[in-house]
Specification:
heterodimer, A: 763 residues, Aldehyde Oxidoreductase, domain 4, seven-stranded mixed β-sheet, 28 strands, B: alpha+beta, Uridine Diphospho-n-acetylenolpyruvylglucosamine Reductase, domain 3, Enolase-like, domain 1, five-stranded antiparallel β-sheet, 35% helix, globular
């Protein structure tokens, strides 16, 4: 029986749970002996002209070895925008020289013998800033009244798509339009950012940093430091969460390497949580307008999504997220006409990156809200409206009006399974009973049906590397270009190799995150790892078997086609000749048995699913409690259900958090008001019910495993389901929309306003 | 997230603590559970140069029935108050509010005296104490004195406890089987109250409706003259001055004060 599809307990966990992980800040590597500690002095003003930086007092403070300002950085060019379509004037200095652009913009670095000394000395650096008006929110940015980069002449980073044609909704019986906020959130990985660097005498640098892909981080450091990547040995120690915010490298990582060269000593840096909340990339941050039109029978005929992406002060991945949102705009629906237009804008806030879902949750949230608004307008059950408009089940590729080609899917089945598991009809009956009785606690039922894109690998090709070697002692080593930071690749990749080779899992070691060991790799992001990295391991095992077959045929003097894999032997046996065969280990004893391969997929995959959220809403206070979340998350073939369920759990939780709780806020002067965990309400177990996970698996033809991505699906599906549920709970009171996070105050106010409108209409 | 440098003094008795306070003056802070003080020190919002650790003074940890009152030592941990059989029987509201602070880890560190001395208007225990009535016993160079709870909290993070004094004990009336109610409104279970209302024996206290915890005097007066719970609760926000922040604006806080007061009074009446 195959081990694939079974609930193998994660082999990583005993070490994580006992000894604990070794994160970047825990490293005791001897190359870091005597390392100085870097402390960044960051702007406390959102926007302004930097008049002076006085380091004299800090230089006298105990333990201070150096205080570095922009004037010292003479051998690096400013960081160019990350995409060619962005105005080239929108560069990022390593340390602010003439202008600060967000609270958190690095101005100076203090290097001290001890970390505590750094915090004290950093306070002694006197920064004089002449404030300029802050640019908070996309509406302010779009006016171009205040420019972050005056040389660029605009705050617009990029414009995607054309305006909605004027006649787009002509002929629709019903047209509903609504402004939506997909609010800014913080990724909050438990391990905040950290890096360390040490130079060899021969000009090679070793950089340790927490990230989601060592090879990409190394490439970025090479670009920024203008170094041959071969001269950079990048090591990814254990990583405590990333959620997209650790893709590639942050400028701070490269700067730590530069500082180490500058002072001639190893340097290390680990940020505090307060620093993380303003310095690490944020996510989401779109202001959207949806318009949906169709017939009163529930058929949608046209849908448009027009939105502005807040990108923060310096363009990062956020600048390209609109393209993913636009690509996925129609979601699971067969709307005949779909139009999307997005702009990317700079604001005096923390930069926006890819956060769990990255562009797709924004698309799903918009269309799922739009469908509910349409259903409410025509007075039809939202499940029925969805059924009428879903793309029918398809096994041949389906191309949408936005140009996405979905591999396969059965959205109606996903919705039906979720509704059945939730007991949808009974829930609606209970809701009607409570409405009739005028209960304080009203029931809300929210739906979302989603499709997303995984393994899209924007611009990098849909490939991943793997190396597999069987050793003479019967063990095997897998080297992968993926970069697990909680995902369980050590377990899953060993399962895949074991399944094909017959080598027990405990004899297979999975290594990653060291560019000397694994020079090629795409990392872990965009839910790509299994469908590309796992598939690469699978392909490597196939290729290793073929190499072994060639060698075994010679050794056993048989025809290669007479050899079959014998899992019990962990080798190849001669068909029909009991006892005749050779193990992979025996072949490895003669000559290294090793393959190096790159798996290349034809195209991304499109996981899909349906979520049903049930909330109880206290209509007197406006507070909603999530009481049930029922989900179907179809990610194709599942290699390890335990791990897949873990991904779903974490994803659902983060999605619920966006719907109900989380929001990064700035005041009008651009000061962050949610930069500690006392103020930023990330979700915990006390706010969540046990999730009800329903199985469904539609294998993709895009890789031999049949696997699609699962890392982000839960987040994408749950956010709109929960938002829709809360609004549904107050629908009978006249509430049609409440923006996220759906806070008690917002819900209460929406109920008050709906009530006063109803009263006015009654009068 | 690293505090400025400070000296640390561990004391074993109230006398030692007071002597240390006298020696170090206004630069010193008393450290009990540390769950309010240490975070603000890490944010460098408080920069004491001496911490006097009173967390291990055995004489400050007790629960006793004394006449019509329950006396609880200032060093008693909140989890002990939450579970103490005497407190549960004689002043169940106090047990309950102690159990609503933060999470179990916090309650195993936080002390009664600490939460009283911190004077956070969003705090559960002061809200419960203000509804219960009673007094806070403090000791300084001039000896002991008693501060009625109605006069204890004088402002945001400010109390009537002088800089050379420390909280020794809290005394609450034995409300026994009288009905009580506590309604705490949060977005997350473990958060501070956005607004809270405590009710017992016709007294109502509110959290986060002013710079300190406050009594809902208009509600209390209405109840005293025989108004219904609904009528009285509708007056709960009178005389309060709630602030606006990211969780709630003042108007919504006023609404919550009225709603939570009604619910707390209903719970108290149902007992």
């Amino acid at each position: 029986m195959s081990i694939l599809g079974t609930r193998v307990v994660r082999t990583e966990d005993p070490l994580f749970l006992t000894r604990g992980a070794v994160y970047t800040d825990d490293l005791t590597d001897e190359r870091l002996t005597g390392a100085l500690h870097a402390t960044f002095v960051r702007s406390q003003v959102a926007h302004g002209r930097l008049l002076s930086v006085d380091t004299a007092a800090a230089l006298e403070a105990p333990g201070v070895v150096a205080v570095v300002t922009a004037a010292d950085v003479t051998d690096l060019v400013d960081i160019p925008p990350p995409f060619p379509f962005i105005n080239a004037a929108m560069t990022r200095p390593w340390l602010a020289s003439d202008r600060v652009r967000f609270v958190g913009d690095p101005i100076a670095v203090v290097l001290t013998e001890e970390r505590y000394q750094g915090e004290d000395a950093a306070e002694m650096v006197v920064v004089d800033v002449d404030p300029l008006p802050a640019v908070v929110g996309t509406a302010a940015a779009a006016t171009d009244e205040v420019l972050l980069f005056p040389e660029a002449g605009t705050n617009l980073l990029a414009a995607f798509g054309e305006p909605v044609p004027e006649d787009f909704f002509d002929g629709c019986e019903v047209v509903v339009t609504q402004a939506l906020v997909n609010q800014r959130v913080a990724p909050v990985p438990l391990e905040s950012r950290a890096a360390a660097a040490a130079w060899d005498p021969d000009g090679r640098v070793t950089v340790w940093c927490t990230n989601q892909g060592a090879q990409q981080a190394r490439g970025q450091l090479g670009d920024w430091l203008e170094m041959d990547p071969d001269l950079i040995h990048l090591i990814t120690p254990d990583v405590g969460g990333g959620f997209g915010a650790k893709i590639g490298a942050d400028p701070e990582y490269a700067f730590i390497a530069w500082l180490a060269r500058h002072v001639g000593r190893p340097v290390r840096w680990a940020e505090s949580r307060s620093e993380n909340m303003i310095g690490m990339l944020h996510g989401r941050a779109q202001d959207q307008v949806v318009t949906i039109g169709g017939r009163r029978d529930g058929t949608v005929e046209a849908y448009s999504l027009v939105f502005d992406q807040d990108c923060g002060a310096y363009p990062r991945i956020g600048a390209v997220l609109p393209t993913l949102t636009m690509l996925m705009a129609p979601g699971v629906y067969a709307f005949p006409k779909v139009h999307a237009q997005g702009r990317a804008l700079a604001t005096t806030t923390t930069s926006i990156g890819a956060y769990r879902g990255a562009g797709r949750p924004e698309a799903t949230a918009a269309v799922e809200r739009a469908v509910d608004l349409f259903a409410a307008e025509i007075g039809m059950d939202p499940a029925e409206v969805r059924r009428k408009n879903l793309v029918p089940a398809f096994s041949a590729p389906h191309t949408t009006p936005m140009g996405a080609t979905y591999d396969n899917g059965d959205y109606t089945a996903a919705l039906d399974k979720a509704l059945e598991a939730a007991g949808y009809d009974e829930l609606r009956a209970e809701q009607a009973r409570r409405r009739e009785a005028g209960d304080v606690r009203q029931l809300g039922i929210g739906l979302s049906v989603y499709v997303e894109i995984t393994g899209a690998d924007n611009g990098a090709g849909t490939k991943e590397a793997a190396e597999l070697e069987v050793h003479a002692d019967g063990t095997a080593t897998v080297l992968t270009g993926t970069s697990p930071h909680g995902q369980g690749h050590a377990t899953a990749w060993a399962m895949i190799a074991s399944d094909q080779l017959g080598i027990p899992m405990e004899k297979i070691t999975v290594l990653h995150g060291d560019t000397d060991l694994v020079p090629q790799g795409g990392g872990t992001m965009g839910s790509r790892s299994l469908q590309q990295g796992g598939a690469a391991v699978h392909q490597a095992a196939d290729e290793l078997i073929e190499e072994a077959r060639r060698r075994a045929a010679e050794r056993l003097e048989v025809d290669p086609t007479d050899l079959v894999v014998d899992l019990g032997l962990a080798g190849l046996a001669v068909r029909g000749t009991p006892g005749a065969g050779v193990s992979f280990a025996e072949l490895a004893a003669e000559e290294r048995l090793l393959v190096n391969t790159v798996f290349n997929a034809d195209a991304p995959t499109f996981p899909f699913g349906a979520h049903v959220a049930v909330v109880e809403l206290d209509v007197e206070s406006g507070k909603a409690q999530v009481v049930r979340v029922v989900t179907v998350d179809d990610a194709g073939t599942v290699i390890n259900p335990l791990i897949a369920e873990g991904q779903r759990h974490g994803g659902i939780a983060q999605g619920v958090a966006q719907a109900l709780l989380e929001e990064v806020l700035y005041d009008e002067d651009g000061n962050p008001t949610t930069s500690t965990l006392a103020d930023y309400p990330f979700v915990s177990a006390t706010e969540l019910p046990s999730f009800e996970l329903v199985e469904m698996a539609t294998p993709t033809p895009m890789n031999p495993l049949g696997a699609k991505g699962i890392g982000e699906a839960g987040t994408i599906g749950s956010t709109p389901a929960v938002q829709n549920a809360v609004i549904d709970a107050a629908a009978h009171l006249g509430v049609r929309h409440v923006d996220m996070p759906v806070t008690p105050m917002r819900v209460w106010r929406a109920i008050q306003q709906a009530g006063s409108h109803a009263q006015q209409e009654g009068n | 997230m690293i505090p400025t440098a400070f000296d640390y003094v561990k004391v074993r008795s109230v006398d030692e603590a007071l002597a240390a306070l006298a020696e170090h003056g206004e630069d010193a802070k008393l450290l009990a559970g540390g769950h309010s003080l240490l975070p603000i020190m890490k944010l460098r919002l408080a920069i004491p140069t001496v911490l006097i650790d009173i967390g291990g003074i055995p004489e400050l940890s007790y629960v006793r029935v004394e006449g019509d009152e329950v006396a609880v030592g200032a060093g008693t941990r909140l989890f002990e108050i939450e579970r103490d059989e005497v407190v549960r029987a004689e002043a169940p509201l106090l047990s309950h509010v102690a159990g609503r602070v933060g999470d179990p880890q916090v309650r195993h560190r936080a002390t009664l005296g600490g939460t009283v001395a911190h004077s956070d208007p969003a705090s559960d225990v002061p809200t419960g104490l203000l509804a219960l009535g009673g007094s806070v016993v403090v000791q300084g160079p001039a000896g002991r004195r008693s501060i009625p709870v109605t006069a204890c909290w004088t402002g945001f993070f400010e109390t009537d406890v002088a800089e050379d004094e420390m909280v020794i004990e809290v005394r609450v009336p034995r409300t026994g089987s009288s009905g009580w109610g506590y309604e705490k409104f949060t977005r997350r279970e473990n958060d501070w109250a956005i607004v809270a209302a405590a009710a017992v024996e016709g007294r109502v206290a509110l959290a986060n409706m002013a710079g300190t915890v406050v009594r809902a005097t208009a509600t209390e007066e209405a109840l005293a003259r025989g108004a219904s719970v609904a009528e009285a609760a509708a007056l709960a926000d009178q005389g309060t001055s709630p602030s606006s922040d990211m969780h709630a604006d003042a108007e919504y806080r006023r609404h919550l004060a009225r709603l939570l007061t009604r619910r707390a009074l209903e719970t108290a009446a149902a007992a």
